[in-house]
Write a structure and sequence with these properties.
The protein has 22 helices and 27 strands. It is α/β, with parallel strands linked by helices and 668 residues long. Helix 10 runs parallel beside helix 13 and helix 21 crosses helix 22.
């Protein structure tokens, strides 16, 4: 049977299950990616698991999110992460080296490989023909320990591209068009695979832009073929020998199909406060702009910065606009300098910041209240910028540059100039000095973890009771994001290694009384949500922190994939309404009662809750494995119990046979 690219990637790594939509499958994982906002939890989980050395082919810990050193907390986390990378056998990318996703693509991206990352935008690596999936941190720790990734087999969504992008329209407008058509839930339960003759006109970094924001569609991941564009890119970064062609077979089919004529696209923009709120730029032209930020993993390539410099060449930014440039890596900064583009943006009035995520996750660059901020970033959820009442718009570098010049939202096609396509070098800067390779295993065993005063051990959680009464402490609406459950930003993220402290910020943007009320309730509680509960970031703090406060159950109309998995991993039961209308029957402070809960979970998908004499029918989508995890209190205690049983039986305690675990082989 002819196979598409996604099917080839899955079948070559399939360990368990049937690769049919809706079935749980287990995949062998070759690589992992962690960053500092989520990586400290991963390293604490490795410590909790008692892991000696990682078993993946390659794992990399990046420091790119929390770079501001306003006190000792971030610096201490960086020291802890470096010591953990040395202890367990990871590569370590130092602070200032760059944003994880483009740096990983440049140095470690490998066609045909699988990768999971504790960052929802890990899917960007699909630009090189990888199966790269954003997951919670515990999934990463388990993969490092040699376990497979368990995921529900998605549908494959084939998107055929034809034509060529017109001047002033770029890759960001392609993914914004997908979001315009389908919104933030359109990709749920699907892998997006781009194909067609239009791919000939998209570089590997163009594809990175598109794949990155597949996360905003809710997709499991995005894949592109490993074709001439991937080959050209690997040649440009000095890794041509890593190229392996990976194409869809002729006659390959897809579960869902779509077509985009690139030549008919126009400049698009996502209005506040959702990536799915997309309209043509001309529809909102004339709105005043106070801030423009260029950078982030959503537009990380040299072209994305160079085109801004070319548009601004010998011009001055509008006096009412702050133009912030965040180079995505030291290598990009080198190439911008060598090509003269850095001088152009400095001369134009731009401020140059360090290589990192920065304003994308509210670490600096917070806009003024009520003032429009245009950003080449992937998300504009309420408050994510660091300003509670923000007004953030998402756009292409071309649209960002046009606004920086005019002081208003402006369709770049309306600028009085010809499109200044930058001429990029044939090879890119290569600088590995801040990429520290793993230590030899004997040396690694001698490393002690460096824990500052803000780094606390992972909390332990008790099993799920069979009989339980749970007050509903909070009701929320549709599309609640993890940024709303647990905010990012410079006030909160420095406590990412301290669950008791970061728990004080849970849901403060929605109801600032929730942390106090939850901490006072010793018996556990529930939250009721709407559609797409937990969209956005993969940060598992949005589960661990409320679990620390006593959360045992979330009932929603539907869940975002990563958050749903994180809930199960930490023993929080995710249930859905059998009839979504029943959500209206539950009010805050109501009490949901369950009896015989374990048997109900094990015997089928239906669960009954009692509510003031009424019966509410609920359902779950958990596999048998996940049910046992939740009953045990989460995946870590479940795995510990398995290991204990296996040791008593004289067998190996891993979740998968030893022969399927690939040995760790550090490169370089």
């Amino acid at each position: 049977m002819p196979l598409n690219v996604a099917q080839k990637l899955i079948r070559s790594h399939l360990i368990s299950g049937e690769a049919q939509p809706g079935h749980e499958i287990g995949l062998r994982i070759d690589q992992t990616l962690t960053q500092d906002a989520t990586g400290t939890m991963v390293m604490l989980e490795l410590e909790s698991l008692g892991l000696d050395q990682i078993k993946t082919e390659l794992s990399v810990q990046y420091v790119d999110h929390n770079l501001l050193q306003t006190d000792e907390k971030n610096t201490e986390d960086h020291l802890f992460l470096q010591s953990a990378a040395q202890r367990y056998g990871l590569w370590f990318s130092q602070a200032g080296n760059g944003v994880s996703h483009p740096v990983h693509q440049a140095h470690f991206g490998k066609p045909g490989a699988t990768m999971i990352g504790s960052d929802s935008h890990t899917c960007a690596a699909g630009a090189l023909g990888m199966l790269a999936i954003g997951v919670g941190g515990l999934e990463i720790a388990m993969a490092m320990a040699g376990d497979p990734l368990y995921v529900e087999m998605p549908e494959i969504w084939g998107v055929e591209l034809t034509g060529e992008l017109p001047d002033w329209v770029s890759a960001k407008d392609v993914i914004l068009e997908m979001l315009r058509r389908h919104g933030v839930k359109g990709g749920v339960g699907r892998i997006i695979e781009y194909r067609g003759e239009g791919l000939r006109h998209l570089t590997a970094m163009d594809r990175h832009v598109i794949a990155n924001m597949g996360a905003e569609l809710g997709a499991t991941t995005t894949v592109f073929p490993a074709d001439d564009a991937a080959h050209d890119y690997l040649r440009a970064v000095g890794r041509e020998d890593e190229f392996t062609e990976l194409l869809a077979d002729e006659g390959a089919s897809y579960d869902v199909e779509e077509h985009i004529d690139l030549s008919r696209l126009e400049s698009l923009i996502a209005k506040p406060s959702s990536p799915g709120n997309v309209v043509p730029v001309r529809e909102v032209a004339g709105e005043d702009v106070h801030q423009v930020v260029v950078g982030s993993s959503a537009n990380p390539g040299l072209r994305d910065f160079a085109v801004v410099a070319e548009i601004l060449r010998e011009k001055q930014t509008h006096s009412g606009v702050s133009l912030d440039i965040n180079p995505t890596s030291r290598e990009i900064l080198q190439d911008l300098t060598k090509g003269g583009w850095l001088l152009e943006v400095i001369r134009s009035g731009a401020r140059i910041h360090q290589s990192g995520c920065l304003g994308c996750i509210g670490m600096g660059q917070a806009p003024a209240v009520g003032r429009n901020s245009l950003r080449t970033m992937p998300r504009n959820f309420p408050g994510r910028s660091g300003t509670d009442e923000d007004s953030v718009w998402l756009c292409s570098p071309e649209t960002a540059a046009a606004a920086a010049l005019s002081g208003r939202i402006t369709d770049p096609r309306d600028l009085d100039m010809s499109y200044p396509a930058p001429q990029l070098p044939a090879t890119f800067a290569i600088n590995t000095e801040m990429l520290l390779p793993p230590l030899e295993e004997s040396e690694a065993r001698e490393v002690q973890l460096v824990k500052g005063t803000n780094i606390k051990s992972l909390p332990t959680f008790d099993p799920l009771p069979d009989e339980i009464e749970l007050p509903v402490l909070l009701r929320v609406g549709d599309n609640i994001s993890t940024d709303e459950i647990l905010p990012a930003g410079s006030r909160v993220l420095p406590f990412r290694s301290n669950i008791p402290k970061i728990a004080e910020f849970v849901y403060i943007q929605v109801d600032d009384t929730y942390p106090t009320r939850a901490a006072q309730d010793d018996g556990g509680h529930a939250i009721v949500g709407g559609d797409n509960y937990g969209q956005g970031s993969s940060r598992e703090h949005a589960v661990i922190a409320p679990r620390h406060l006593g959360l045992r159950l979330v009932v929603a109309k539907s869940f975002a994939r990563i958050h749903w998995q994180n809930l199960a991993n930490f023993g929080v039961l995710p249930l859905e309404f059998a009839d979504p209308e029943d959500a209206e029957q539950i009010s805050q402070d109501d009490v949901l009662s369950f009896s015989g809960l374990h048997e109900a979970l094990r015997s089928g998908t239906s669960v009954t809750a009692e509510l003031g004499g009424k019966t509410i029918e609920l359902k779950h989508r958990l596999s048998d494995r996940q049910v046992e995890m939740i009953v045990a209190g989460g995946r870590i205690p479940y795995r510990a119990a398995q290991s204990e049983e296996s040791n008593e039986a004289g067998t190996r305690g891993s979740e998968i046979p030893e022969e399927t675990v690939k040995p760790h082989q550090p490169e370089g």
